[in-house]
Amino acid sequence: MAFSPIRTFRRTTQRLRRSRIPERLAVEALIAVVKVLRALPSRWVLRFADAIGVLHSVLDRRGRKAALQNLVVAFGGTMSRAERLRIHRESYKLQIRAIALLLHLQPLTRERFDRWVDVAELVDAETERRIRERGAVLVSGHIGNWEMLLGLRIAFPDFPPAVFLAEEVPYGAINAFLKKLRSHGDILSAFRKGGARPVIKVVAEGGIAGLLVDRNVRRDHGGVFVPFLGLEARTTPLPAWIALRHDVPVHPVFCVPQEGDRYRIWLGPDLTQDLPPGDHHERMRELLTRINHSLETVIRARPELWNWTLKRFKSRPEVELGDYPAYSLHDPE
């Protein structure tokens, strides 16, 4: 058989994938990036992150397309294409900043956390007491700097242990490295795939669960349709199920940027208060509606804070496309 450079390249690539060499190289590269970012002045890190964010917003055609469609869903024809592109660009910059600061602030000490984040008057005495005694479910989304929410346990050392669900990448060694970066004391991170068990366990023992709830969750993963930005969107039932099963409060929490490159964490009221009577499914749907509404309120007020590239409406209940974005798929009850 004649020598084929293309066939040889494909076989070599397959062997590399099976050998886990690329995974080890990726981890070594991440370690090197952390060392470099830790050594750089913070203002350099932020400006570098902004430049990467702008570049990524231009090069990521798929993400830009989804973002523009999502913005039409949320704001209709009230926003020009130029304004939608601006929001998408600013959103990307904030996303890259969140990742860059996660690497730059290692290890995340109380001093470093206070340098960047304001938690003054975050909770009143009664709310703090309930969280200490009963635990809580904290819900958020890819809004502002969600990575900084991991520092709550640093700011409030009297809070019970916490577990935050995180996104998973296809490589175990990289997941382990990211998990180490996100773990501070008895704040731990679990990955979304198979992560429900440790989250439920920590709440059952009086701890805190932190959940990002703004992703589409397929029907076979338990997603239920709940209103979000004017459309029915498949939503994870996990926070409502945990709260009602273990009788714990649910608080929305966000870390939003302020002037001077600082952030402020805002903790909302308990969403389980005054739930109307009804069966379990009705109460769950009402609580999930409140959770989605808390995210929607922040997104509509400051749209640049949210990650608009998420295909939040990938599932739709109707056959016809209707007002759903072009990327959505029919996923009936």
Question: Briefly, what is this?
Answer:
By secondary structure, the protein is of the alpha/beta class. Helix content is 49%, strand content 15%.
Structure description:
- It is a single chain.
- The chain is of the alpha/beta class and 333 residues long.
- The protein folds into two domains: 15-104, no CATH class; 117-330, Glycerol-3-phosphate (1)-acyltransferase.
- 49% of the residues lie in helices and 15% in strands.
- The protein is built from twelve helices and eleven strands.
- A seven-stranded mixed beta sheet has the order 1-9-8-2-5-3-4.
- Helix 3 (42-59) crosses helix 5 and helix 11 crosses helix 12.
- The longest helix has 24 residues, at 81-104.
- The protein starts with a helix and ends with a strand.
